[in-house]
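fwd from M.: "can u put these together and see what the complex looks like"

so here's what she sent:
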Amino acid sequence: MATGERGPLTARLARMTVPTDRHDKLGKLQASGVPTYPAGMSLPGRELIQDLLARADPGAPEGDRAVATIAGRVASVRDHGNSLFLDIKDDSGRLQAFVRKKTLGEAAFVLLKETLDLGDFVACRGELARTRMGEATVFTESLELLSKSTLAPPSEWYGLADVETRLRKRYADLIANPESFERFRARSAIVRDARHFMEERGFMEVETPMLHGIAGGAAAKPFRTHHNTLHMDLSLRIAPELYLKRLLVGGYERVFEIGRNFRNEGLSPRHNPEFSMLEAYWAYARMDDWIEACETLVADLAVAHGCHQRAVEATAEDETPAPELLESHLVVRGDRVIDYSRPFARRTYAELIQEYAGADVFDESSVLQAAEKHGVATGGRGVYKIVDDLFGTCVEPQLVNPTFVTHLPIALSPLSKASAEDPRVAERFELIVDGMELANAFSELNDPEDQRERFEAQVAERDPELPAEVDEDYIEALRYGMPPAAGIGIGIDRLVMLLTGADSIRDVILFPLLRARARDGEEAGDEESPSAEPRKDAHLKSEG
RNA sequence: GGGGGUGUAACUCAGUCGGUAGAGUAACGGCCUUUUAAGCCGUGAGCCGUGGGUUCGAGUCCCACCGCCCCCA
């Protein structure tokens, strides 16, 4: 907004496309000396609706009633001529306010009726009591305009259904769709609980760079950028892994980071170019320790937060959720009911490939044959890539209940230790839930020479999804000695999807990346940057 | 990149065989002393995604483009 702009409010708003009727109301309010966006506002005694209802009994007898001040958005108005019923909605809930001409005074009441709109923010002060119909209500003695709304909010009754509007104007989605509002609350609570879980187990939260010279720690195309003063090409991180492990070298034994990773790849219902991970490293631990910790974390979160989804499903069928349902390990997602009871299933990678793809992971001809049969591309690619595709096509979609997939091929695991029993497989697991990879963990490779060889093999592949050069600094760090350790990455967005029943990652990211919309009166795509970074600005937006 | 779907009022949606652009909600004007999807009477509201084509006539049929959704590569 043009905050520096001066001049009468109505004149400023007239230059914008304010609907005429709401524009007239602004003038009316100004003429009456009522500030539409008052400064220096203080609301002594203002309570959240939820707190008020917990503190005071609306059914208290006359003379014993609480006086309350509530503030929020006008969500509904029922006009009865000489009185109004308003629904006031705040962060915590919704409460009715009753406003009478007799109480408020003729002039104030008339002005209110002439100017009040859905979406306005107001404060109401008065006694909390019940109406004849038994509805808890603030019998308003004074009402104050806190902020005027000049655009009509989306219909509360029908909600906001248009997917594009919901994503581009998330605020409108949050106003109109309570399930969306609650879902992002659930996300916050899930992250908070996950953080608490890690802290309780003695892990220290750290922040590592998002700007990397060499984007390593995963196989993905990075977003590229440039630092002007240092004349450095940089990438947004695709994973924090190599920095977190440098901290193990430095002597911290348990570290974790919750944060954003960036991968310059396609969008899908389960992929957003920026997404959140919880990544943790644990010295002197092995893969099995993470199986225990991960299982505990996910199962506990499912009981604690899946209850929201169970309640949603129950209410959809007009049933009151039974108490045992709210404490269960069952969480609904679409037409699946996912059972998070411990222990989760444990299967080996080779076993699953055999069962669902009919191939022997360690036999090339068997893999090629299966690829042919299942329509997986083979041309000019390493066997392990084909196996990986077979797993994604044939196995992953079949695993609905949480399943630890262990003994992944070492060729797919360039940063993990090989198993002591079988050098062909890594000491590694992936946790698959409802066909999605939710977590990935392994015993960390700490042999600098072995690591160098694997990096060099990656560079030799000349794959745009793999680093183009060896991260010498990381190798050097390993030379100083890294304790034996195991690490894990847990996809936060997917975790929230699973526990809230969301179908798309966009339903759990407040502001997902969307194609830039051509502005009116401009030729779209005409003089757009011809470079390979068409959406650079969407990511590198500076606050400065 | 390929295929399918979709785009109509602020919101949710109808729109038949190609023949004057519709409803509910919201808004606006009335009536109404406790309603709750308040009610009743009345009014206004549209670049039918954009551009082209076929036709006497296009929201509707055809082509291209744009956005969004889904599937596939």
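replying to her w this: The two ends of chain A are 16 Å apart (CA to CA).
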